[in-house]
Amino acid sequence: MVYFRLPISSSQAILILCLLALTLCENTLYAVEAPPPDPDEGKRVYKSVDSQGNTAFSDQPSDEAREISVEEFMTYDGKKLVQELEAENRRSRDNPVEEGPVRYSNLSITYPQNNETIRENAGNISISGQIAPALQSTHRVEIVMDGVTVAQGLSVSLTNVDRGTHQVSLRVVNSTNNSVFQESTPVSFTLQRFSKLHSAAQK
Question: Going from the N-terminus, what domains does the chain have, and what CATH number goes with each?
Fold first, then answer.
């Protein structure tokens, strides 16, 4: 708003008119709304070929150029991607995935051999086996003969074993709940012992 006092001189009147004109122009500029931005501005690509066959591309239209279609490139927010990876790493550290127990690739009886015949009048016999990879901390290994656990570990010496055919195997047991985790292929052997009855029959 322009204020002035009366009476005024001609020079003052001209100055006042100029101020009024400037104020009117300023109000007019504020009253005019700016056109909405073009969402495709900067995305349009124009192709032109000059008289010598040279091809040129530009983001500015011209009479010689024609608009071409350009596929939108996939972009990534590097900062956001790093934040997501760090969050995933924190979740992995806070909630580690418990890996399941690994089965043993080698679990077998090494002595006696399958279908072996052993002559031992006192019935003394040694049983041994092997396991790989190494036994896990939550497991124990047992030696089983004829369905009965006779020892823990990979070897045992038995005495006064009955003569006849027997089966032995290794069995891996989960120590936390005593469940059978894995068992080897059974090995059969025959034990021969001197029989007093057989000696008496011969007499």
Answer: 106-202 (2.60.40.10)
